[in-house]
Specification:
Methylamine Dehydrogenase, Chain H, 1108 residues, 6-stranded antiparallel beta sheet, Serine Threonine Protein Phosphatase 5, Tetratricopeptide repeat, single chain, 36% strand, mainly beta
C-alpha cells in the first residue's frame, strides 16, 4: 500500500482473508484498499462484514465512516464516527471528521464542539483548526474565524502540524492497513561470508617516518571507461597512485604517465565529480599545501586544469567533496582544512560558474567553519530537498551546515554530547529504514566509533555499538556484507594491540553485532590504515572492502559468500542534473521491504566510494520499484529492475515547469491550442537579490476551426500538465468576427518589465506577405524556413548549457518596399524554449544575462542602429506575436536584424504594410456559463523534431507522472464558476494533473456575415509558481500572490487580504489540502481516453469536497 501497488495489495489481503476467515484484520485491510481504489460500494460491504467479525475494532468503524463520507452518506457516517469515538474517545482525527460531517449538515454548534474537542486533544491538529475557522465563519463569527485561519496557516507553514488529506497514509493512522501482530522476527542469520585479502601491488609510496596521527590515506573509486580504478593519495614524488584490479583479484598499479595524474607532496584526500558535465568524471586531490583539479580527457587520460578553472589555495586543505550546494545542475567543490591566516575559517567553497570556471563563494554561504576541520559528506538530513553538509573536526560533534536555499547555511552541531573526543570520519546511511539518513562518526579518541539515529530531521540520538577498548578510529563505510537488505557498518579502529578492521552487522530492531572475527578480519594485518571503502571490485554482486595504508599499497579484501544473496548494481547518470548524480536520493522497494540511499560525494575518512550503488535484496530477484529524486527535484520511478547485472539509470528527460495548457473542443475531440500565462510566473530568483516581474494576464487566439459549440456551449480545458501551482482569477472568451482574407491576433508577447503588451486586437490585412529575404548569422538563406507554419524552424544558434540560453545570434530580414502611409507590422510565429529559475540563476553565476530580442535597422552607410530596445518574444509554445514597426524605421530602410541570446525558434514571419482595418472587426463577449475543477491526469506530451516544440494528445492520458505536489490548501473539486468571473484575488488554485473545464455560452453570438470568418480570443488572468529550487517558496501554495503586491515574495509590510470576503473565500473554497508527500508512482502510464464536454447550466457551488 505504501508503494502505491494497491491492486497487488488487495490481492494479498484477499489471500489473507481466505487463509484466516476468522480474523477481521484482512477484511479491514481489504476494505481500506477498496476505499483507495474508489470501489466504494465494495469497500462499504467489506468493512460492514468486518464489523460483524470484530465490532470492537475502532479502525473498522473509522474506515467505514470514511467510506460513507466518500459516498456522501453523511448521516450514516456520523453514526460511524460516533461509534469510533465511543471505542476511543481521545482520537482527535475521529472528532475532526465528526465535526466536518456536522458542518456539511449545517449543524454548526455541534461542529464547533467536535473541532474544539479535537484541538483539546491535539492543539496542533491543523485540519481541526481549519474546520473550526470554517464553522465559525459560517456561524457569523468572522473575527474568531480569522484568528483560527491564521493559526491553521502558521501550523502548516511552519510544519509543526500537517492537515489530513485524501490520499493513502494521510487520512489518519486508523486509515492505514493493520499488520497482523506476530512475534517480531529478528533479521535472519548471516549466510556464510568471509573477507579474503588479495595480493598487494607495487611498493611503498614513501620511506619517511610516520606520525601516529598523521592525516592522509584518502582514496576514491574512479570509473574510467567502464572500469573501476582505485585512486590513492600518499607522500612523495608520486602522491597520486592509480590501481586496477586484475582478473586474479590482485591489484596492478597504472603508471602515472598513462593517466597524467602526477603530483608531489603530502597527499591527503580525493574526490570525484564531473565538474564540466561532459560525461567524464573528473578528479580533485587535496595535498597539504594545495588543491589540484584534473580534467578527465577520456580514455584514461587526465589534465591538470587547476589554474585554468580559477582554483587556488585559500586554506591548508584536508578533506573535500563535490556537491551541488545550490542545486543548479553542476557540482561545486567544498574543501575542509585549517585557516591560512587569522580571521579566516578552515573551509572553502568554490562555486561552479557553469562555464568550466569556479568562484570562491564561502562568505555568502556561511560555510567558513571554525577551528580545524577534517572530513565532509553531504546529505539531505531534514528531507527538505536541499542538500546539507556534515563536517568533522576538532570539536566533539560534527557540524551540520543546513541548507536554507537562500543566503547562508544554518550552523548547528550534530549532537549535544560535549564529552566525546574530536571527530574524524563521517558517513550517512538509513540504517533503520525509516526514511531519515542516520550518521556514523569516527573519533580521534574513545569511543572510536559512534552511531546516531536521525529522529525525523529534528535531532539525533545515539545508537549503541558493541565496541570497547577503542583508542581511536579512522575510516568507516556502510556496507551490506551479506546482501540481506540491512546496511552494516565497517570501520578501522585503533585498539591496544594495533589497528583492526571491525564490521558490525545490522540486525534491525536487535541492534548491531560485531562479526569481525566471523568474517575472518582478525587475520588481516594492517600497516597504518586510514580509509576504508566498500565497492564491488570483482563484479560478483557482493561488496568488497578496500583499505588504504600510509606509505603502503591498499589492501583489497574480497567478499566471499555475500553473492549467494541477490543484489542490484545501480549507476545513476544525470541529465539536467550533474552527470555523476551526486546528491540524488534513491529508494528501493522489493518484496514489501524498502531501503534508502543517497549518492554522496566525499564519505568516510577523506575518501569517496564508487558511483555504483549496491543494494542487497536477499533472495528477491528484482526490485519492484527503484525511486529516484534528483537534486533539481525530478522524481523518477523504474519498475521491475532485475538483480545481478549492472544497470545504468539515466535521469528522466522531464520538463517540470511549463505553463497551464489549453485544449478546445472542435466538435469531435479536444485539440491542443497552446500554453497560457507563461509570463505570469512569480518568484523566479534571477540573482541573489532580485526576482522577475510577473505579467498575470494573456490573450490567446483559438482558431475558429478548433472550437465548436455543443448544446449551446463552447468547451475549453485549461490544465496543469507538469508540477506548477496555478492561481487563476478570471477566464474569458471573446468571439472575433472579421472579413475573409484577414487574420486577427491579440497583441501579446513576453516583455521583461511593465508596461506589458496591451492584449488589444490586431488585424493582419489581406496584403501581408513574406519578407523579401531572410539570412542567419552565417549568411545562410533561411527564407524557405519562414514561408509556412510547418514546424520547420530557423535554428541559427548554439544552445548553451543553461536551459533557454544560446549564443548571441541574429536574424536579418529584408522587409522589401514599404510605405509610410500605412502601418508596418511583423506577424511572427514561433516559440521559446523557456529558461527555468535554476538556469537563470546558474547563468547569473556565469555572468550571463538574458538578452531579449532587440531590433536594429541598417542605415544607408551600412551601419546598424538600434530602433527597438525590446521586441518581446512568444510567451511559450508556438503562437503568433505582433511587432509594430510603424514610425520606428528611417525612411528607405529595408533591412533589419533581430538579435538575442535566447532560444527562440521562428516558424513563419510575415510583413504587413496594408491599411489598418481593426474597425472592420466585430467582437462579442461570451459569458462563462460553468467551470469545474477536477483531477484529469497528464495528456501525452509529444516532442517535435525541434527541442521544445511540444504538443499534447488529449486522447491519451496518464493518471500518474513524475511530478510532485506543493504543500498547502487548494481549491476543492467541483464547480468553481463564481471564482472566475472577476479579478479579485479569489483564485481557483490547482496543481499537477488538475484542470478547469470552462464552458462559455454561445447564446450572444450574432449571425456571421457572408464571407466573414469567426475566431476566438481566450483570456486568462492569474499567476503560476514553479517547483524549482530557485523559485521563491517552491514547495508550498503559500505565499498567496495578489495583484497589488510589489514583488514576489512580497515584503513583510504587504500581505494577502484578510478582509471578511477574503476570509470567507479561503474557508469556503480552499479546503483541499496536499501534504507535498503524496505517495504515488512517478511514472507515466498513458491510456486511451475518451473525453466529452461537461454541458449544463450554472448551478452554484455544488462541490462536496472537504479538507481532509
Amino acid at each position: 500500500m505504501g508503494q502505491q501497488f494497491t491492486e497487488k495489495a488487495l490481492q494479498k489481503f484477499e489471500e489473507a482473508h481466505k487463509a484466516d476467515p476468522a480474523s477481521a484484520i484482512p477484511l479491514l485491510n481489504k476494505g481500506i484498499a477498496l476505499l483507495y481504489l474508489r470501489r466504494l460500494p465494495e469497500a462499504e460491504e467489506t468493512l460492514k462484514q468486518a464489523t460483524t467479525v470484530d465490532p470492537g475494532n475502532v479502525r473498522i468503524w473509522y474506515c467505514l465512516g470514511l467510506a460513507h463520507l466518500a459516498e456522501s452518506k453523511s448521516d450514516v457516517a456520523v453514526e460511524d464516527f460516533k461509534h469510533a469515538i465511543k471505542l476511543n474517545p481521545v482520537d482527535a482525527d475521529s472528532h475532526y471528521y465528526l465535526g466536518s460531517l456536522y458542518r456539511s449538515l449545517k449543524d454548526y454548534d455541534q461542529a464547533i464542539g467536535e473541532f474544539e474537542e479535537a484541538l483539546r486533544l491535539n492543539p496542533l491538529h491543523a485540519s481541526a483548526q481549519f474546520g473550526l475557522a470554517s464553522a465559525l465563519q459560517r456561524s457569523g463569527k468572522v473575527a474568531q474565524a480569522r484568528e483560527h485561519l491564521k493559526r491553521f496557516q502558521t501550523i502548516t507553514q511552519t510544519k509543526v502540524g500537517t492537515p489530513l488529506a485524501v490520499t493513502y497514509g494521510e487520512q489518519g493512522d486508523y486509515a492505514t492497513v493493520q499488520n497482523i501482530r506476530l512475534p517480531e522476527q529478528a533479521v535472519g542469520p548471516m549466510i556464510p561470508v568471509s573477507f579474503v585479502a588479495q595480493a598487494g601491488a607495487g611498493s611503498t609510496t614513501s620511506s619517511s617516518p610516520l606520525a601516529a596521527n598523521q592525516a592522509g590515506g584518502g582514496a576514491c573509486i574512479l570509473n574510467v571507461d567502464g572500469q573501476k580504478k582505485i585512486v590513492v593519495v600518499g607522500d612523495g614524488d608520486s602522491a597520486i597512485r592509480v590501481y586496477k584490479s586484475l582478473q586474479s583479484g590482485a591489484l596492478e598499479e597504472v603508471p602515472a604517465q598513462q593517466t597524467g595524474l602526477t603530483a608531489s607532496g603530502h597527499g591527503i584526500a580525493c574526490a570525484v565529480g564531473d565538474y564540466d558535465s561532459d560525461g567524464h568524471p573528473d578528479l580533485a586531490v587535496a595535498l597539504s599545501d594545495r588543491v589540484l583539479l584534473f580534467h578527465n580527457l577520456g580514455h584514461g587520460k587526465f589534465e591538470d586544469v587547476t589554474k585554468t578553472v580559477g582554483i587556488q589555495q585559500l586554506n591548508h586543505p584536508a578533506g573535500l567533496t563535490f556537491v551541488d550546494f545550490d542545486h543548479d545542475g553542476d557540482v561545486d567543490l567544498f574543501i575542509t582544512g585549517s585557516a591560512l591566516s587569522s580571521g579566516t575559517g578552515p573551509d572553502v567553497l568554490w562555486r561552479n560558474n557553469g562555464n568550466s570556471t569556479f568562484t570562491e563563494w564561502t562568505k555568502p554561504t556561511g560555510l567558513a567553519g571554525k577551528g580545524n576541520t577534517t572530513a565532509v559528506t553531504l546529505s539531505d538530513l531534514n528531507n527538505d530537498r536541499a542538500v546539507d553538509l556534515i563536517v568533522t573536526g576538532d570539536s566533539s560533534s560534527p557540524t551540520i551546515f543546513e541548507n536554507k536555499r537562500e543566503g547562508a547555511f544554518k550552523v548547528l552541531p550534530l549532537y549535544a554530547d560535549s564529552g566525546l573526543t574530536p571527530t574524524r570520519g563521517v558517513l550517512v546511511s538509513d540504517f533503520n529504514k525509516d526514511g531519515w539518513m542516520d550518521v556514523a562518526v569516527t573519533h580521534a579518541g574513545a569511543p572510536g566509533v559512534s552511531l546516531w539515529r536521525n529522529k525525523d530531521g529534528e535531532h539525533f540520538e545515539r545508537v549503541a555499538l558493541p565496541l570497547s577498548g577503542a583508542k581511536s578510529a579512522w575510516g568507516l563505510t556502510a556496507i551490506d556484507i551479506d546482501n540481506d537488505g540491512w546496511i552494516d557498518l565497517a570501520a578501522i579502529v585503533e585498539m591496544a594491540n594495533g589497528p583492526e578492521l571491525h564490521v558490525w552487522r545490522n540486525r534491525g530492531a536487535q541492534g548491531f553485532e560485531d562479526v569481525s572475527d566471523a568474517l575472518g578480519l582478525n587475520k588481516v594485518k594492517l600497516q597504518n590504515p586510514r580509509s576504508v571503502i566498500a565497492a564491488d571490485i570483482d563484479g560478483d554482486g557482493a561488496a568488497d572492502l578496500i583499505v588504504t595504508q600510509l606509505n603502503a599499497p591498499p589492501v583489497v579484501l574480497r567478499n566471499v559468500g555475500g553473492s549467494r544473496n541477490h543484489s542490484l548494481r545501480l549507476t545513476l547518470a544525470g541529465l539536467a542534473d550533474n552527470k555523476t548524480a551526486i546528491g540524488t536520493k534513491v529508494e528501493v522497494f522489493s518484496n514489501g521491504r524498502s531501503q534508502k540511499f543517497e549518492v554522496a560525494g566525499g564519505s568516510g575518512y577523506l575518501s569517496q566510494g564508487p558511483p555504483e550503488i549496491l543494494v542487497g535484496l536477499g533472495q528477491a530477484d528484482k526490485a519492484d520499484v527503484v525511486r529516484m529524486l534528483w537534486p533539481t527535484g525530478v522524481p523518477q520511478d523504474e519498475l521491475d529492475v532485475a538483480a545481478g547485472k549492472p544497470v545504468t539509470l539515466t535521469e528522466l528527460d522531464r520538463r517540470g515547469s511549463s505553463c497551464p495548457v489549453l485544449f478546445a473542443w472542435d466538435g469531435s475531440k479536444y485539440q491542443f491550442v497552446t500554453d497560457v500565462i507563461g509570463a505570469g510566473v512569480i518568484g523566479h530568483w534571477i540573482s541573489p537579490v532580485s526576482t522577475n516581474h510577473a505579467d498575470p494576464e494573456e490573450w490567446i487566439k483559438v482558431d475558429g476551426s478548433q472550437l465548436k459549440a455543443r448544446d449551446g456551449l463552447f468547451s475549453l480545458r485549461f490544465g496543469e500538465p507538469m508540477e506548477e501551482i496555478n492561481y487563476i482569477d478570471q477566464l474569458r472568451l471573446v468571439a472575433v468576427d472579421h472579413p475573409e482574407g484577414t487574420e486577427v491576433y491579440p497583441d501579446e508577447r513576453f516583455l521583461d518589465d511593465p508596461p506589458f503588451a496591451s492584449g488589444a486586437t490586431v488585424v493582419a490585412s489581406s496584403s501581408r506577405r513574406l519578407p523579401a529575404g531572410a539570412w542567419d548569422d552565417n549568411g545562410r538563406d533561411v527564407l524557405p524556413l519562414l514561408t509556412a507554419r510547418d514546424h520547420e524552424f530557423v535554428h541559427n544558434f548554439t544552445n548553451l548549457s543553461y536551459a533557454g540560453y544560446a549564443n548571441m545570434h541574429s536574424l536579418t530580414l529584408d522587409l522589401g518596399a514599404w510605405s509610410r502611409q500605412n502601418p508596418l507590422r511583423l506577424f511572427m510565429n514561433g516559440y521559446i524554449e523557456y529558461f527555468s529559475a535554476s538556469s537563470m540563476y546558474a547563468a547569473w553565476q556565469a555572468d550571463l544575462k538574458p538578452i531579449s530580442p532587440f531590433i536594429e535597422a541598417q542605415m544607408p552607410d551600412g551601419s546598424w542602429k538600434r530602433v527597438v530596445n525590446e521586441m518581446g518574444f512568444p510567451a511559450g509554445l508556438p503562437r503568433t506575436m505582433v511587432v509594430d514597426l510603424t514610425g520606428k524605421l528611417p525612411v528607405g530602410t529595408r533591412r533589419i536584424r533581430i538579435t538575442t541570446n535566447l532560444q527562440i525558434y521562428w516558424d513563419q514571419i510575415l510583413v504587413d504594410n496594408g491599411p489598418d482595418s481593426v474597425k472592420g472587426v466585430r467582437q462579442t463577449e461570451l459569458p462563462l456559463s460553468t467551470a469545474h475543477l477536477a483531477f484529469r491526469g497528464y495528456p501525452q506530451q509529444v516532442q517535435g523534431k525541434t527541442s521544445g516544440d511540444l504538443t499534447y494528445r488529449y486522447d491519451r492520458i496518464s493518471a500518474t507522472g513524475p511530478f510532485h505536489w506543493q504543500r498547502g490548501s487548494y481549491t476543492k473539486y467541483g464547480e468553481v464558476t463564481p471564482l472566475l468571473h472577476q479579478i479579485d484575488n479569489h483564485y481557483a488554485i490547482f496543481g499537477s494533473g488538475e484542470e478547469i473545464d470552462a464552458e462559455f455560452s454561445a447564446a450572444p453570438l450574432p449571425p456571421l456575415p457572408p464571407h466573414w470568418k469567426r475566431d476566438y480570443f481566450f483570456y486568462a488572468n492569474g499567476f503560476v509558481k514553479d517547483m524549482d529550487f530557485y523559485e521563491a517558496s517552491p514547495f508550498t501554495v503559500a505565499q498567496m500572490p495578489f495583484h497589488e503586491m510589489t514583488s514576489y515574495p512580497y515584503p513583510a509590510s504587504e500581505r494577502y487580504p484578510d478582509n471578511p470576503p477574503s476570509v470567507k473565500y479561503e474557508l469556503d473554497w480552499n479546503d483541499r489540502f496536499e501534504s507535498g508527500d503524496r505517495t504515488q508512482r512517478f511514472q507515466f502510464d498513458y491510456k486511451p481516453t475518451v473525453s466529452q464536454p461537461i454541458t449544463g447550466q450554472p448551478s452554484g457551488n455544488a462541490s462536496s469536497a472537504h479538507l481532509h
